[in-house]
Write a structure and sequence with these properties.
alpha/beta; tt1808, chain A; Rossmann fold; seven-stranded mixed beta sheet; six-stranded mixed beta sheet; 15 strands; about 50% helix; globular; binds S-adenosylmethionine
C-alpha cells in the first residue's frame, strides 16, 4: 500500500477539532473518558484508509508478561497490532504518565500518547515527534508518520517478494536442471540420492518417484536460505530434525561439482533484495511472505505435483472460526479449556501450521497455567511435504517464542503421512528424531482433531502416484464401513482423500469422546455415493454441525469460475464440527 499523507484540513481532523471543542464547551472539567471518544473516532476514520481497525482497550502483555491495556490498538486484516494509542487527562502530567507507561512495558514500536492538548509519538522505542494538537500542520504530520510506520521497508519488501514470486517457477526450473545434470555425472550425489530415496520409500511412500525426491531437494534449497537469513534462524539446517538429513544429500550434490553458491547461482540477487528489505520488518510481515512463497511455489512450479487447489493456506478467518468452535465445544460439552490436561489435539494436515499457531494464541491467553505443557505434551501436527513442513516448524516455534520469550522446539510436529499412521507396524520415519516424535504421537490419547485435509483425489503429489496410492488400513476400513453401507453402484467418490481423513480421524479417536473439526469438500453432506459415510458419521458422533460455505459450481452454474469459493476451487466447501460426548473427557 502506498504511503498516505494526512492534510491539516483532512475531514477527519476537522471533525476531531470540532468534537473536542464541543466536548470542552459542554463540560466544566473534561475528563479522559469523555474526551478520548473523539480521538478514537479520528483514528478509526484515518485507519480505514490503511485497512486498520481500532480496537478499544486492547489487551496485551507488557514487561514480565504483565497484562496491560492501552486505550486502543489499530490492527490489520490479520488482527496484528500495527499501532497503539494511549489517552490521558489534560489535567495529568503527560510526560510523567508516559514514563509510567514505559516502566510497565507499553509497546513503544508505534504509539501515540495524547491528552487532547499535546500528542507524543514514539516509534521503535524512541520519541519520534511531539506537538501541540492545536498546531494543525504539525499534528497532521505526526499522524502521517504514525500511519506510515515502516511503510518504506514494507513497500520495498513487498516489491522484492512480488518479483521473487514471479520468478519462482524459473528459479525452481534452474535448480531442477542442475539436479538432473548431477544425476548424470556426479557419482557421490548418485550414491547419496539412492540411499535417501530408499529411506523415503521406506518411511514416506513406497511409490515415491525420483521426481518427488528431486522436488524435496528443490523445496529445501528454496526455503532454507530464506528461513536462515530472513528469519534469522542461523542453525535451522542443523536443528530441524529433517533439514539436517536433507542437507547431507545436498552436500553431496554440491561438493564434487559445484559450490553451494554456484548452485544457487543467479538467485543471489533475489535473495539479497528480500533479505535487505526484510531487515526492518517484524515477524508477522515475514510470516505473510513465507506463506506466500509456499503458495506460489506450489501454484507456480508444482502445479501437477501438488494439485493447485490442495496446497493453499487456509484463510485466517476460517482457521479462527474453527479454533473458536472447538474451544467452545470443549467448554460446553466437556467443561474443559483449550490446553487443559486431558485435551490432546492434532492437526493432521498442517500446511504452514496456522491452526496450531491459532490454538497456541488462544491457550496462552486463556489458560496460561497449562500453556507450557500444552505446547510440549498435548499438541501435535503432521505434514508430508517438505516446504510447508519447514514453514510450519518456523511459524509454530516462533509463535511460542513471541508468547513466552523462550525458544523451544515444537516436538509435536512430525514429517509423516498421516494416513500411514493407521498401520500397527513399527516403522522408521526418515530420521531417528522424527521417528521418536511419531512414536510419541502414536501413543497419545488424541481427542481433538482439527484441520484442512486435502480434498481432491491425488492432491498430495501426483508424482508420488498418490492418485493410486493405497493406504491398506484406511482403504479397508472405508470398504467395510462407508462403502459397505452405501446403496450407490459407483462408489469412486469414496476414494477422495478427505474421505480417508474422516475415516482416519474417527478411528484415531478410538472409543474416546472427542471432537473432529475439518474444513473440506462437502460433497458428503448430500451426494448419493456418500450415504454410507453419512450413516456412519451419525453413528460415530452424537452431534454434527455443518457450516456450508457453498461454491459448488455444478450445483449452481451461475457461479462458474473460482471466485465464489473460499479456496478458489469448483467443489463445494464447508466446515464440519463433529462431537462425540458419551462421557466427559478423561484426564
Ligand atoms: C489444504 S493444506 C492445509 C493448509 C493449512 N491449514 C495452512 O493454513 O497452511 C493441506 C496440507 O496437508 C498436507 N497433506 C496432504 N496429505 C497429507 C497426508 N496424507 N499426511 C500429512 N499431510 C498431508 C499437504 O501437503 C498440505 O500442506
Amino acid at each position: 500500500m502506498p504511503p498516505i499523507t494526512i492534510q491539516p484540513n483532512d475531514r477527519h481532523l476537522t471533525k476531531y477539532y470540532s468534537a473536542i471543542k464541543e466536548l470542552r464547551d459542554a463540560q466544566v472539567k473534561p475528563t479522559e473518558g469523555n474526551m478520548r471518544r473523539a480521538f478514537g473516532a479520528l483514528l478509526t476514520g484515518l485507519g480505514r484508509r490503511r485497512k486498520l481497525t481500532l480496537i478499544d482497550e486492547y489487551a496485551t502483555q507488557g514487561k514480565g508478561r504483565r497484562h496491560i491495556r492501552p486505550d486502543g490498538a489499530l490492527v490489520d486484516e490479520w488482527k496484528r497490532p500495527f499501532a497503539f494509542w494511549e489517552a490521558k487527562d489534560s489535567s495529568d502530567n503527560l510526560y510523567a504518565e508516559i514514563e509510567n507507561k514505559k516502566s510497565v512495558g507499553y509497546p513503544l514500536d508505534n504509539i501515540i500518547f495524547e491528552d487532547t492538548v499535546t500528542a507524543v509519538l514514539y516509534q521503535d522505542g524512541l520519541e519520534a515527534r511531539r506537538t501541540y494538537i492545536r498546531e494543525k500542520k504539525n499534528f497532521a504530520a505526526l499522524l502521517t508518520q504514525y500511519f506510515n510506520y515502516k511503510e518504506q521497508a514494507r513497500q520495498s519488501f513487498n516489491e522484492a517478494v512480488q518479483s521473487y514470486g514471479e520468478q519462482i517457477r524459473d528459479i525452481a526450473t534452474q535448480l531442477k536442471a542442475k539436479i538432473d545434470a548431477a544425476h548424470q555425472d556426479n557419482p557421490e550425489f548418485q550414491r547419496q540420492f539412492d540411499e535417501f530415496m530408499e529411506l523415503c520409500r521406506r518411511s514416506l511412500n513406497p511409490n515415491i518417484s525420483m521426481e518427488a525426491v528431486d522436488e524435496m531437494l528443490i523445496q529445501h534449497l528454496m526455503t532454507e536460505r530464506i528461513i536462515r537469513r530472513v528469519f534469522d534462524v542461523a542453525h535451522f539446517t542443523q536443528t530441524n530434525v529433517i533439514a539436517a538429513k536433507i542437507e547431507e544429500v545436498i552436500r553431496a550434490l554440491t561438493s564434487a561439482y559445484f559450490s553451494r553458491a554456484d548452485f544457487m547461482g543467479g538467485l543471489r540477487h533475489f535473495h539479497q533484495a528480500i533479505e535487505d528489505a526484510a531487515e526492518d520488518l517484524d515477524f508477522s510481515d515475514k510470516q505473510t511472505f513465507i506463506n506466500s512463497v509456499y503458495e506460489r511455489f506450489f501454484q507456480g512450479y508444482s502445479v501437477d505435483i501438488a494439485d493447485t487447489h490442495g496446497i493453499v493456506y487456509t484463510p485466517q478467518e476460517i482457521v479462527d472460526f474453527m479454533c473458536a468452535a472447538v474451544e467452545e465445544a470443549l467448554e460446553s460439552e466437556f467443561g474443559k479449556k483449550l490446553g487443559d490436561e486431558g485435551v490432546v489435539i492434532i492437526d493432521p494436515a498442517t500446511g504452514t501450521g496456522n491452526f496450531v499457531v491459532n490454538l497456541l494464541r488462544r491457550a496462552h491467553e486463556r489458560n496460561l497455567r497449562e500453556f507450557e505443557d500444552f505446547y510440549k505434551k498435548r499438541l501435535f501436527a503432521n505434514e508430508v511435504m517438505l516446504m510447508p513442513y519447514y514453514i510450519a516448524s518456523l511459524n509454530i516455534e516462533r509463535e511460542y517464542y513471541e508468547l513466552t520469550g523462550r525458544a523451544a522446539p515444537f516436538e509435536g510436529l512430525c514429517f509423516v503421512d498421516t494416513l500411514d499412521l493407521a498401520r500397527e507396524r513399527q516403522m522408521t520415519f526418515l530420521t531417528e528424531a522424527n521417528t521418536e516424535r511419531v512414536e510419541r504421537q502414536k501413543k497419545a490419547d488424541i481427542n481433538v482433531i482439527i484441520g484442512n485435509p486435502p480434498y481432491n483425489v491425488g492432491q498430495v503429489n501426483e508424482n508420488d502416484n498418490n492418485k493410486n496410492r493405497k493406504y491398506d488400513v484406511i482403504d479397508q476400513r472405508i470398504r467395510e464401513t462407508y462403502a459397505k453401507d452405501s446403496k450407490a453402484t459407483n462408489k469412486n467418490a469414496l476414494s477422495d482423500v478427505y474421505v480417508k481423513f474422516w475415516r482416519w480421524a474417527t478411528d484415531r479417536l478410538g472409543d474416546r469422546p472427542g471432537i473432529v473439526c475439518f474444513v473440506s469438500n462437502n460433497s458428503f453432506v448430500d451426494q448419493y455415493a456418500f450415504d454410507g459415510m453419512r450413516k456412519h458419521l451419525m453413528q460415530d458422533f452424537d452431534q454434527i454441525y455443518h457450516l456450508d460455505l457453498h461454491g459448488n459450481v455444478r450445483q449452481n452454474p451461475k457461479i462458474s469460475g473460482t471466485t465464489h469459493n473460499v479456496f478458489g476451487i469448483q467443489v463445494g466447501v464447508g466446515v464440519t464440527l463433529a462431537i462425540r460426548n458419551l462421557t466427559t473427557l478423561n484426564d
